[in-house]
Amino acid sequence: xxxxxxxxxxxxxxxxxxxxxxxxxxxxxxxxxxxxxxxxxxxxxxxxxxxxxxxxxxxxxxxxxxxxxxxxxxxxxxxxxxxxxxxxxxxxxxxxxxxxxxxxxxxxxxxxxxxxxxxxxxxxxxxxxxxxxxxxxxxxxxxxxxxxxxxxxxxxxxxxxxxxxxxxxxxxxxxxxxxxxxxxxxxxxxxxxxxxxxxxxxxxxxxxxxxxxxxxxxxxxxxxxxxxxxxxxxxxxxxxxxxxxxxxxxxxxxxxxxxxxxxxxxxxxxxxxxxxxxxxxxxxxxxxxxxxxxxxxxxxxxxxxxxxxxxxxxxxxxxxx
Length: 321
What we know:
Elements: H1 6-19, E1 24-29, H2 36-43, H3 51-55, H4 57-61, E2 72-79, E3 93-96, H5 105-123, E4 129-132, H6 140-146, E5 151-152, E6 158-159, E7 167-174, H7 215-221, H8 228-231, E8 237-239, H9 249-252, H10 260-264, E9 273-275, H11 276-281, H12 284-291, H13 300-312
Parallel strand pairs: 3-8
Antiparallel strand pairs: 1-2, 2-7, 3-9, 4-7, 5-6
């Protein structure tokens, strides 16, 4: 079989990605990224205790450090917006971010990403690949933008019409030379609706999220006490935060998930609003079972119980230190 041209190989790969259940797919040329945005974010201390961001800076800016000889990045996205928001219960509860109400997206995206990598290696003999879904030092939002899937909004979230910012991203880095797509233009315009929606002021600089003041960071990633200024503004959030996404015009008319992978992440209504009283009465084993196989496991038992105590008004002293 004659080798496929970069254009034909790219077309075949895109067809395969859609067949795997991804909603969007695009290709970017693998080249060093502009270090300006990441370096500014780090220089301001916006990374808080995310030490791995500093430690992996060079790899994030140059994928050839992860895969020598990298020539292309295949970016994919799935829409994950749920349908109608369930009614909030009368009893005190903690709100779970929309993306975290179903299965762990890593477990859903990993296999189709690996199959896409294997197909690329088959279509372009001699090529090798590297698949990533939010667990490798890969700037997936930057690559998805360069591949034409959307752009990074002023709230730091990736916006991909027709799904708005309710999308999940993945990448396949490959040594195959593939025809790249044009980058997506920024379509936020003069809109700033998302910026004042953050109750803790984590979006003081548009497109740069200050993790030190971010509710999502403190309820998911941060294992220690939540600072009082953030704890007092949790707005009922137990895990993650959608507050800066809710006023975005691109989300008002966003399409709900309809693709195979998006539907595999369908939210479970009982995980949207977690009753605080029952959670605080639960054993560690019961909390582990509640979080198993979902993004909630990222916060761990201690993180979930810490935040639930704050929401219930019964924090330990160190929670508000």
